[in-house]
Amino acid sequence: MSQSTVLDAIPHRPPFLFIDDVTSITDDKIEAKVTLPVDLDVFRGHYPHFPIFPGVLTCEAVFQAGAILLSRRVTDPAAGVPALTRIRDARFKRMVRPGETLTLTAEIEEVLSSAFYMKGSAFVDGETAVRVLFTCALAPLPKERR
Question: Choosing from 12, 33, 46, 94, which is the catalytic residue?
Fold first, then answer.
């Protein structure tokens, strides 16, 4: 999936877009990648002498992959956009450093009405960086954005 397709799927934009490429996608599961530039601004202030990509942003990358997955299911803009409503059981297993490539996965476990219960992970070179359970619901767009 090209970068332009990613940009069409979700509203996120640089500098807050953490998906470079979607490597595989089905109706219920996605795998995506992002390579973290060594000059990413967050590294200047988050442990400047030992830069670490914040765990919350690693989770955000997983959530963005999940939003791309949901964009395949929710094709009517009037239905709303996926919004994160719950984070559960986030487990941080490995630090993520400048220049590393994250492989991101998100999978739909259950759908109840307009709520999507999902699980996701981020890996670096096959090592788990984070595992997280999360829920997204469709948030209505303001009338002027529909």
Answer: 46
- Residues 106-136: pLDDT tens digits? 999 999 988 999 999 999 999 999 999 999 9
Cross-strand bridge partners of residue 24: 31
Verify whether residue 46 is a known catalytic residue.
yes
Q: Are 68 and 22 in contact (CB under 8 A)?
A: yes
Query: Given a cut of 90, is residue 80 above it in pLDDT?
Result: no
Q: Which fold has domain 3-145?
A: Thiol Ester Dehydrase; Chain A (3.10.129)
- Mean per-residue pLDDT for 36-45? 96
Give residue 144's pLDDT band: very low, low, confident or very high (50, 70, 90): low
